Amino acid sequence: MIFFACVACKATHCLLRLFNYGATSLPGALALKIYPDILGYAAKNVDIIAVTGTNGKTTSSRIVERAVQNEGKSVCANRSGANLMPGITATLILNLRLFGGVKCESAVIECDEAACRLVLGKIKPRVLLVTNLFRDQLDRYGTVTRARDCIAEGLRTAPETVAVINADCPMAASIARMCPNKAVYYGLSEHGRHSVGSGEDDTCPVCGQRLSYKGISYANLGEYSCKCGFARKSPAFYAGSVLPDGSIVLHAGEEKMLCAPALPGLYNVYNAVGAAAAAVTDGASLKNAADAAQGFDRGFGRMESFPLGKRGAEMILIKNTAAADQTISEICREKGDKTLVLAVNDRTADGTDISWLGEADFGMLARRGGVKRAFVCGDRAEDAKKRLERENIPCQSYKNYDKLIASLRDEENHVFILPTYTAMLGLRARLVRKLGGRNFWE
Fold this sequence. Notes:
Strand content: 15-25%
Radius of gyration: 21 Å
Shape: globular
Number of helices: 17
Low-confidence stretches: none
Mean pLDDT: 93
Largest sheet: 9 strands, mixed
Number of strands: 17
């Protein structure tokens, strides 16, 4: 049955790719139907680093993947972002040779938070990187503690896995209290006194009292403590002060290395430090990890550039309050006039709860963002339009992606496209078709 499951997966993948479909999950789902334990089999003899968390999974995975490659190792990854069990299964089966053995000795696997409880015990990664845990897809999780509990449950089924955890995130840090796994912490060495508002909870994940902060980087990330004794752990891996040019000094114990992350923003500093911590914990050198953070291939929709308009366009995925606020903050740092495109869907993969749209600080764009024109599209375009108009940002609504793209061809301003997940896939596919570029799974 194992052989037939693998053949079915590989054949389905080839057939779907022949017709230019992503083939990211269906081949794996079919293999699981034929042989439900195929994932554990496919993961054998592969050194796996898994990445989970609310924000930063894809970017962190790309950095880790490059770091492993810098070590001279062959590596496979679910680069499409198909991070549920079928997508992960397909990735690892495609890494198998049909008559035995593996093509790549290492794998970097992005894993959905809820899927961790089912996946980790089967793939048994050497390292699990937990980026952060924010309020996201509340229709699916209910509360952020549900995502945490799923990760902890998964780690308990893989006790040899080393958990590399963001020390600055209270909810993520509390995972270590719930499982026997060795924990390695990363974070920032310095935190500001103020942060871009995100509406994130600042209560203790252990006792529910309000946390005290000595400093905050953004959202509820920072140096915290509680009367019950729960407090931020000192990170083994950390970034020193962010220098004026955006570079940081990566510290790993007594070793340190200058690093200029390829993507701007404080949240990408966290991605760089976390990915470096995971790679070094897996055996990579700090130099190779730092080089990876400076030169990795950015993921689709993650500050991805397109030759649209006279100054170009950037697409940046947003899906919750914390991500939106940090993205808006980075847009405001850019000089010059800008044009904004806000594309909002509320499908299952996006999360049907779009309350974050009202909580995110879009008013920052009106106060100091330099946004001169705005467009909205997607299933919830009217909600997006009302949200921007509340901040006195006039905008035009489009239901057709092709017409939107046509209207932006001669745009004078730098264009920033902020889509939710499924809106990103739809709009990006149109942009690639008209302007060129890689498929999202490449």
